[in-house]
Amino acid sequence: MAGGSVLVLGLLLNAAAFEHARALTRFSPDGPRTRRAESLSATEKLQVLVEGVRIPKPRNRRTPLDVGLSYERHVFAGAHGLPIEAWLVPASADHGVVVLFQGHAASKDQPPRS
Predict the structure, then answer these.
(1) Average pLDDT for residues 28-34, to the nearest whole number?
(2) Phi and psi at residue 79, in whole multiples of 5°?
(3) How far apart are the C-alpha atoms of 26 and 30, rounded to whole Å?
(4) 62 with 111: CB under 8 angstroms?
(5) Main-chain dihedrals φ then ψ at residue 44, nearest 5 degrees
(6) For residue 52, what pLDDT is reported?
(7) DSSP code of 86?
(8) Which helix (H) or strand (E) holds 23?
C-alpha cells in the first residue's frame, strides 16, 4: 500500500513539473500574466502550482522611430520555421556595434524588469 502511494505521489509531482516546464516555454493565448508569488492568495498559489504560470505573448508597442531613430525590420526563420524579428538601427562608421537581446517573455520595446 505504501509503495503504491509513493508511486502515485511521484507521478503527480512529475506531472506538475511537466506542466511548469511547458508553461515556461510557451506563451498563453490570452489573459493577464501571473502576478508575483508574494501578491497571490493561497488559492491562486495552488492554481499556479497545478497549472503553471501564465505568460502572454509580448507585443511591441513602440519602435525606434518613436525616439527619432530610423531602423530596418528583418525577419529570420527560426526553429521549426517560426519567425524571429530583429531591428537594425544603422549608426555612423565611427561607432561600435551593439547587439541587444530582450529577456524571457519581453518585447524589444520594454525596459528590463527588475
Answers:
(1) 82
(2) -60, 140
(3) 12
(4) no
(5) -65, -40
(6) 81
(7) E
(8) helix 2-25
For residue 14, the one-letter residue type is: N
Please give the torsion angle defined by the CA atoms of residues 59, 64, 67 and 70, in that order, rounded to the nearest 10 degrees: -160
Q: Between 108 and 13, where is the model more confident?
A: 13
Residue pair 52/22 in contact (Cβ under 8 Å)? The answer is yes
User: pLDDT grade, residue 62 (50/70/90)?
Assistant: confident
Q: Quote the mean pLDDT of the chain.
A: 82
Do 83 and 75 touch, CB atoms closer than 8 A? yes
Question: Count of CB atoms within 10 A of residue 88's CB?
Answer: 11
For residue 57, what pLDDT is reported? Answer: 82
Torsion angle of the four alpha carbons 44, 49, 50, 55, in this order, in degrees rounded to the nearest 10: 80
8 Å CB contact between 37 and 57: no
**Pick from 80, 93, 26: nearest CA to 53:** 26
Three-state SS letters, 89-109: CCCCCCCCCCCCCCCCCCCCC
C-alpha cell at 50: 497545478
